[in-house]
Write a sequence for this structure.
């Protein structure tokens, strides 16, 4: 059984083929970063148009690489994300489903991130804790089974990836700034500034990153005013990153204790952060699982593997689903359509 996965929820066009018998057989990714960086953020209309431009050629490339005429099912990201961008993937998935006479499977983008570790040689067993950290989400989830998700904590304002991106912008590091900020932080002193660890001492498992972002902004303004900013950028980046990572690891560790879950999956773009990985390894009281680095950020492979796990839900291509908002805890275990 071969499942074609299509991801178009934001600014990456991702396509992959996953075989239930052989695992991942081909994948391709096109990043739109260059198109959006001049605007300092993702422009939805440009994102949709570029998915239109790239999606069919990437599908053709992946099918050729795998030597396949048609897949057995097509999984596509149905949300959450930019509706226009989602419509491109959902529209083409349904069109190809009709042309190839094969069923389609709508996939929740964050479930895709969550299941990306299932592509690895040593996937986690259920139950486990998941820390999903991306540009749009920061969530701690108790994953009891496929589709049985309890959201233990979420961000009350900015997502952690968004905080990285906004701080990077203040430091004039361009868009998306997360990886650039992390690289700059390697050269800085993470104790130079004492930024807040928001919500860390609160008993609940929610996050908040806007206070941290504001504290960094005020410090940068002060340094700009005094003319010292250039020599302090790396220290600011390192101190910000340390505060953000301390908060994530602190809350994840607390969740491990309260939930009694000794396995954790860390996924989503910020899961690529090296300090987060080393601190999680040092402080999390259990085994930590990650997708390989290239599958931490958006990609088609995570959608294809999620489709393979939800194959029971494959349905005739008759409805394009595209949800801007879609809560992960409304999902259920796969049931035959
Ligand atoms: O999962 P993803 O590709 O897209 C969303 O679903 O949002 O995550 C993108 C986010 C961006 O905010 C980006 O700056 C951040 O992940 N990111 C990082 C790193 N690599 C990507 N943040 C911190 N350190 C990194 N190494
Ligand atoms: Zn994502």
């Amino acid at each position: 059984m071969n499942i074609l996965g299509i991801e178009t929820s934001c600014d990456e066009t991702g396509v992959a083929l996953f075989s239930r018998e052989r695992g991942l057989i081909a994948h391709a990714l096109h990043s739109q970063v260059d198109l959006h960086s001049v605007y300092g953020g993702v422009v939805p209309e440009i994102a949709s148009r570029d998915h239109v431009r790239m999606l069919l050629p990437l599908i053709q490339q992946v099918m050729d690489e795998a030597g396949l005429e048609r897949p057995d099912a097509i999984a596509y990201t149905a949300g959450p994300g930019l509706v226009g961008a989602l419509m491109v993937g959902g529209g083409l998935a349904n069109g190809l489903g009709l042309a190839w006479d094969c069923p389609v499977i709508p996939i929740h983008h964050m479930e895709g991130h969550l299941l990306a570790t299932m592509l690895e040689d040593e996937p986690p067993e259920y139950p486990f804790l998941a820390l999903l950290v991306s540009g749009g989400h920061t969530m701690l989830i108790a994953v009891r089974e496929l589709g049985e998700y309890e959201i233990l904590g979420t961000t009350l304002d900015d997502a952690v990836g968004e905080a990285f991106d906004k701080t990077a912008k203040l430091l004039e590091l361009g868009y998306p700034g997360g990886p650039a900020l992390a690289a700059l932080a390697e050269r800085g002193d993470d104790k130079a500034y004492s930024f807040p660890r928001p919500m860390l001492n609160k008993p609940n498992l929610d996050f908040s990153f806007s206070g941290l972002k504001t504290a960094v902004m005020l410090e940068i303004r002060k340094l700009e005013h005094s003319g010292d900013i250039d020599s302090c950028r790396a220290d600011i980046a390192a101190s910000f990153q340390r505060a953000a990572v301390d908060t994530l690891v602190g809350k994840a560790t607390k969740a491990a204790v309260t939930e009694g879950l000794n396995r954790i999956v860390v996924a989503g773009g910020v899961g690529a952060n090296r300090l987060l990985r080393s601190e999680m390894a040092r402080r999390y009281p259990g085994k930590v699982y990650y997708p390989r680095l290239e599958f931490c950020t958006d990609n088609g492979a995570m959608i294809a593997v999620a489709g393979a796990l939800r194959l029971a839900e494959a349905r005739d291509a008759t409805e394009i689903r595209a949800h801007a908002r879609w809560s992960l805890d409304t999902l259920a275990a796969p049931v035959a359509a």
